[in-house]
Structure prediction request, 249 residues.
Amino acid sequence: MTDAPMNSNGQDRGKRTLLAARRVRELIVSGALTPGQRISERLMSEQLEGISRTPLREAFKILEAEGLVTIEPNRGAVVTALSVTDVAASIEVLIGLETMAAEPACEFITDAEVAEVEKLHKDMVQAHHDGELMTYFVLNQAIHQRVVDAARNPVLSRIYAAECARIRRYRYAGNRKNERWQEAVREHEHILDALRKRAGPMLREILRQHHRSGWAVSRKVLEQELGAVGGDTAGEAKRPRRARSASPA
Prediction:
């Protein structure tokens, strides 16, 4: 008895859905789509060539589960808007989760897993050198997730990943400040060094300060953005600005 053939149409649609989710996610995280903005299906279908509205709507459901968009009756997908207070509360949770993971991560992490983090770090530094902010940010987030995963607590990993996804756009904002971007790279050198040494208490404190320093910059950026935008973010979406991948200001 042979297995039934895979449905190629279903596979293709699934790939298009994941592609659409990735591209819209990047537009939200980079700030090309702003909090409170309605995402026009027509404009997005035009921008994402080859993506019809059906996989795009499925992509919106994925992003809704991540907390990046909200699907509203009669409006469709809207970029989720969080207040600075909301994001600050999430940052405190992330600090707690990551510092909780630090010591068991150093206890359980394998040499192969450390090597994987070293490779991610090397690629992240290269992205910084090349001015590829989005690539840098994705690699940065992957490193932090690997540290948490090394603690061997699947519940901790799941909650951490979900909360990171929800405030991804707001954390990205701070890295647009060039001085913070450079400082964050140096801090990651210390994170990697603590992992190599399996120095749990050291890693815990490095991570705590790393996140607090990053949030201090991100908070100022967000407060400036919210002050400049005022009440305009809840309106109908204009054509999204092209996401910048070059060096931050």
